[in-house]
Amino acid sequence: MAFLPNLRQTQIVRGYPRVRGASMGNSKKSSVAFSWLALLLAVVFAISPAAGQTPVHPAAKPLDKKTVLQKALQTYYVLENQGLKSFQCVVQPDWKKFMDTEAQKQATGEDPRLAMLSPVQYSVAADNQGDPKITPIRPSGGSPDSSVDQMVAGAQKTILGFFQSWDSMVLTSLFSPTTDDGYTFSEQPDGYKLTTVAGEQHIEISLTKDFVLTLMHVAAPGVVISIVPKYTKIDKGLLLMTGFDDDINNGSQKLSVQIQYQTIEGFQLPSKVSYVVSFSGQTVPMDLYFTKYQLPKG
Q: Which regions of the chain does DSSP assign to beta strands (E)?
């Protein structure tokens, strides 16, 4: 089974886009579902923020790009700015929920795949320097059975895609007024727009007058993606990303993501991430649970 769909992936990590080729032969439903999870997450999170509509403000002195980016940087809850630059945790997929959907019936305790997958978790070591380290583990010891290797690897890619993207929006910040990020800046009647072209990709980011990112649009050969992130306002008025809705190729694929948080030593960290992926007339949900956080001391 292959886990990457037969189209060019658009991947944006820490605000810098790149296009990679990918191909897929015949695959089963489980691998396709993980493919879309990995594809959509790699695109969506690394660029996201946004919350609901904001009122249009009266005309004011135009702001330059550096000022807009600085104010945007101050708008969002960013762990690095709060003093947290790294952590470790354990991620547990809800294997039964995913397999119930795949089989279009409830997976019973007699299903040998469920018995093999249920003990599989993933250890995560994340920091603000690059991609996290994600390792499949079995708390009881031993390695996952080889017959479920593809599903274990697919979930690992999904978790990696989440952290690559979430890291660049919540652990660190998308907005950097001190570096030349290559974006062209323009003021709009209702906000601001940042655009860039990288190779065959065209990227547009729309912000309100309150510096909330309301829409991300990515166009590349064979792929058109619209992303509408969601936020909630927390302490000191900062916006914390709590999910997003994503549309690929005018509705041919859709993804809805919800992120729940927990407070660990004063920091907001994921407790549960829920996906609903829709493609080819199928709807596939998957939940990930985040536990056993370890934060650096001192």
A: 9-13, 16-20, 86-93, 121-127, 133-137, 184-188, 191-198, 201-208, 213-220, 223-233, 239-248, 253-264, 267-279, 282-294
Distance CA 218, CA 239 (A): 23
Q: Of 63, 1, 14, whose CA–CA distance to 172 is shortest?
A: 14
pLDDT in tens, 150-170: 889 989 988 998 888 788 789
Q: What is the pLDDT of residues 198-254, one digit of tens each?
A: 888 898 999 999 999 899 899 999 999 998 989 999 987 789 999 988 899 999 999
- What is the spatial distance between Cα 264 and Cα 141, in angstroms, rounded to a whole number? 27
Helix (H, G, I), strand (E, B) or coil at 132: coil
Contact 26, 35 (CB under 8 A): no
- CA–CA separation, 230 vs 214, rounded Å? 8
d(CA 291, CA 139): 13
Q: What is the pLDDT of residues 96-144, one digit of tens each?
A: 888 877 665 555 555 678 888 999 999 999 998 888 999 999 888 777 6
Question: Sign of torsion, CA 149 150 155 161?
Answer: positive
- 3-state DSSP assignment of residue 115: helix
pTM of the model: 0.76
Distance, CA of 226 to CA of 220 (rounded, Å) = 12
Q: Is the dihedral of CA 24, 197, 256, 267 positive or negative?
A: positive
Write the CA distances from 83 to 88, 266, 271, integer angstroms.
Answer: 15, 10, 20
d(CA 296, CA 85): 9
Provide the token pair at 26.
């015949």
Cβ pair 53, 259 in contact under 8 A: no
Residue 249's φ and ψ, nearest 5 degrees, are 50, 55
CA angle 70, 74, 78 (to 5 degrees): 120
